[in-house]
C-alpha cells in the first residue's frame, strides 16, 4: 500500500503563513495604539498646565485605546475617592483599530493566495490575526492597571475578543469576495437588513443634528465654559467629533420610541422628558429635548424608523416576485431580526455608565432599542414587502390595437353565409371575379356542380384538409386563406387545395414549318 504524505515544504509554507498572519495582527494593534499615543502626547505637550508626566499621558492613551474596543474603564482619581466606571466609548475612535484588524486579515489571504506558498484556511487566518492582536491587547491591559484608568477585567475579557474576532472575520469575508448565503431568502434578508440599518442611522444623525442646531446657543455656552485654553478647547472639540457616531445612535433610539436614559429614573422619548436628568455640561448634551410634554416636532422623529422599515420591506418585496407569500413574510421578518440585532449591539456600544448612583445608566438601553426595531419591521416591513410583491406580480391588461380595414373586410367575407346569399358582398368590399360558365347540355340543362373531394372519413376535404396534409396548424387563418388576398392583387385566384408536388406538363408543340408557297 502506498501512503500519500504531505511534502514538508507545504507544511512549512502553511506554518509560515500562519506566523505571518499573527505578526500582522500584532502590527495592526501597535499601529492603532501608536497613533492614539501620538495624539495624546501632542495634547499633553501643548497643555500649559499638565497634571502628570509622560507616564500619565501614555497610561491615558492605553486607556483610551481599550475604551475604543468597548472595554469599560475605572476612574480612580474621583473627588469622593471611590472608583467610578466609565463605559461610554467614543465610537469614532474604534474606526482605526477595527480597520487595521480588517486589513490585516484581508491581506493575509490575498498575499498568501497570490504567492507560491499554500494560503491558510479562513479559520486559521482569523485565529492567527486575532491571536497576534490580542497578545498586544493583553499587554496593554496589564500596563494600564497601574494608571489612572485601569480596565475592568470582565469587560476586557468579553468585548475585546468579540470586537477583534469580528473585525478579522469581516476582513476574511472581504478577501473571499463578500459572499452571501446560497439560499435566496437569507441573502435577501441580509441585504434588506443592511439597507434598513444604514437608513436608520442616517436618519438618527439628521434628528440629532437638527436638535443640536435648534439648541446651538446652549451648545456654544457649554463648549466655552469647559475650558479657556486653546489646547483644552481642541481636546474638547476632538472628543465631540469622536462622539458623533454615538449621537447618531441616540437619535435613532429616540425615533424608534424607547429613547435613552439620562441617569437613573430619567428618560427622553418622543412623548416627553420624564424624571430629572443628570446630564453634565457638554456641547452634545445640549441637544437634549426640553422639559415637558413632547409635541408634534418631537413625534416627527418617528419618520426615521418608518422610512427605514419601508425601504427594508420594499427591498424584500422586489426580490420576492417569484416567491410565495409565506417565504416573503419570513424573509421580511428575518430582515427585521437582523437589523434589530445590529441596532442592539450599536446601542450597547453607544451607551454605558458615566459614574455611580444616578450616572450608572446613560444612553440607549440595548434590549429596548433592539426589540423596538424588530417590532417596527414586523408591523410595517412585512406588510410593505407583501404589497410590493403583489404589485410586482400583477398582470397588465392587454391593449386593444386598431384593426386595418382590409383585415376587417376579410373577416366579414370569412364569416359570410353559404346559402343563396353567399355571392353577396358588402358594398364596401371588393367585387369578386366571376368564374367562367360551362356550356349548356344538349337539352339546355346545366351540368351538375362538381362535388369536392371527400376525405376517408366521408367529410368534405377543403382547405383545412389540404393544409393538414402539410402538417400546419388548424387555425382560423387557414380557413379563410382562399378568400383573403394578402397582396392586394385583383387577379389573385386562390387554390381549392395545395398541390403536393409540381408535375411537369406536356411539352409545347413544335412551331409549324414555314410555307414555301
Structure report:
- This protein has 517 residues and is mainly α.
- Helices cover 55% and strands 4% of the residues.
- β3 (260-262) and β4 (267-269) form a beta hairpin.
- α3 (95-114) runs antiparallel to α4.
- The model is unreliable at 1-12, 420-446 and 452-492 (pLDDT under 50).
Question: What structural keywords apply?
Answer:
55% helix, five-stranded antiparallel beta sheet, two-stranded antiparallel sheet, globular
Brief overview:
The protein has helices at 8-46, 54-68, 95-114, 122-144, 153-175, 184-214, 216-226, 230-242, 244-256, 296-299, 303-319, 325-350, 366-392, 405-414, 463-468, 476-479; strands at 73-75, 84-86, 260-262, 267-269, 272-274, 292-293, 362-363. By secondary structure, it is mainly α.
Strand segment count: 7
Structural class: mainly alpha
Helix content: 40-55%
Low-confidence stretches: 1-12, 420-446, 452-492
Walk across the major sheet and give the strand order: 6-5-4-3-7
Mean pLDDT: 80
| Termini Cα gap | 115 Å
What is the H/E order? HHEEHHHHHHHEEEEHHHEHHHH
Biggest beta-sheet profile: 5 strands, antiparallel
Number of helices: 16
User: Strand fraction band?
Assistant: under 5%
**Gross morphology:** globular
In angstroms, what is the radius of gyration?
A: 43 Å
Amino acid at each position: 500500500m502506498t501512503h500519500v504524505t504531505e511534502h514538508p515544504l507545504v507544511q512549512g509554507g502553511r506554518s509560515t503563513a500562519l506566523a505571518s498572519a499573527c505578526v500582522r495582527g500584532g502590527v495592526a494593534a501597535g499601529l492603532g495604539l501608536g497613533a492614539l499615543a501620538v495624539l495624546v502626547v501632542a495634547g499633553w505637550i501643548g497643555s500649559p498646565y499638565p497634571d502628570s508626566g509622560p507616564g500619565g499621558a501614555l497610561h491615558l492613551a492605553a486607556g483610551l485605546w481599550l475604551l475604543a474596543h468597548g472595554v469599560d474603564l475605572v476612574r480612580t482619581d474621583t473627588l469622593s475617592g471611590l472608583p467610578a466606571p466609565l463605559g461610554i466609548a467614543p465610537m469614532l475612535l474604534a474606526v482605526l483599530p477595527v480597520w487595521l484588524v480588517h486589513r490585516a486579515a484581508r491581506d493575509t489571504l490575498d498575499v498568501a493566495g497570490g504567492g507560491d506558498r499554500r494560503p491558510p484556511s479562513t479559520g486559521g487566518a482569523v485565529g492567527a490575526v486575532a491571536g497576534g492582536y490580542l497578545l498586544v491587547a493583553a499587554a496593554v491591559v496589564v500596563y494600564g492597571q497601574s494608571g489612572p484608568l485601569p480596565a475592568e477585567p470582565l469587560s476586557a475579557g468579553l468585548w475585546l475578543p468579540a470586537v477583534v474576532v469580528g473585525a478579522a472575520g469581516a476582513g476574511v469575508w472581504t478577501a473571499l469576495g463578500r459572499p452571501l448565503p446560497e439560499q435566496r431568502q437569507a441573502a435577501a434578508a441580509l441585504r434588506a437588513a443592511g439597507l434598513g440599518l444604514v437608513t436608520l442611522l442616517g436618519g438618527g444623525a439628521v434628528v440629532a443634528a437638527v436638535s443640536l442646531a435648534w439648541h446651538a446657543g446652549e451648545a456654544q455656552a457649554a463648549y466655552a465654559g469647559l475650558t479657556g485654553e486653546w489646547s483644552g478647547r481642541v481636546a474638547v472639540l476632538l472628543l465631540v467629533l469622536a462622539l458623533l457616531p454615538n449621537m447618531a445612535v441616540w437619535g435613532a433610539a429616540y425615533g424608534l420610541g424607547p429613547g435613552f436614559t439620562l441617569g437613573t429614573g430619567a428618560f427622553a422619548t418622543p412623548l416627553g422628558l420624564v424624571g430629572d436628568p443628570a446630564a453634565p455640561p457638554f456641547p452634545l448634551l445640549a441637544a437634549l429635548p426640553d422639559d415637558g410634554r413632547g409635541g408634534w416636532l418631537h413625534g416627527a422623529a418617528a419618520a426615521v424608523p418608518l422610512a427605514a422599515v419601508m425601504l427594508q420591506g420594499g427591498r424584500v418585496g422586489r426580490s420576492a416576485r417569484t416567491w410565495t407569500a409565506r417565504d416573503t413574510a419570513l424573509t421580511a421578518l428575518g430582515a427585521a431580526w437582523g437589523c434589530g440585532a445590529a441596532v442592539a449591539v450599536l446601542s450597547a456600544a453607544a451607551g454605558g455608565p458615566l459614574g455611580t448612583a444616578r450616572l450608572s445608566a446613560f444612553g440607549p438601553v440595548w434590549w429596548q432599542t433592539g426589540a423596538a426595531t424588530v417590532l417596527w419591521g414586523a408591523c410595517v416591513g412585512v406588510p410593505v414587502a407583501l404589497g410590493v410583491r403583489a404589485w410586482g406580480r400583477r398582470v397588465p391588461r392587454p391593449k386593444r390595437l386598431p384593426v386595418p380595414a382590409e383585415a376587417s373586410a376579410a373577416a366579414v367575407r370569412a364569416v359570410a353565409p353559404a346559402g343563396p346569399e353567399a355571392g353577396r358582398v358588402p358594398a364596401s368590399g371588393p367585387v369578386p371575379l366571376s368564374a367562367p360558365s360551362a356550356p349548356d347540355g344538349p337539352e339546355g340543362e346545366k351540368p351538375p356542380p362538381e362535388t369536392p373531394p371527400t376525405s376517408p372519413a366521408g367529410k368534405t376535404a377543403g382547405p383545412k384538409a389540404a393544409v393538414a396534409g402539410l402538417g400546419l396548424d388548424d387555425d382560423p387563418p387557414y380557413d379563410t386563406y382562399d378568400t383573403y388576398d394578402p397582396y392586394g392583387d385583383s387577379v389573385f385566384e386562390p387554390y381549392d387545395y395545395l398541390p403536393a408536388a409540381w408535375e411537369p406538363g406536356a411539352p409545347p408543340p413544335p412551331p409549324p414549318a414555314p410555307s414555301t408557297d
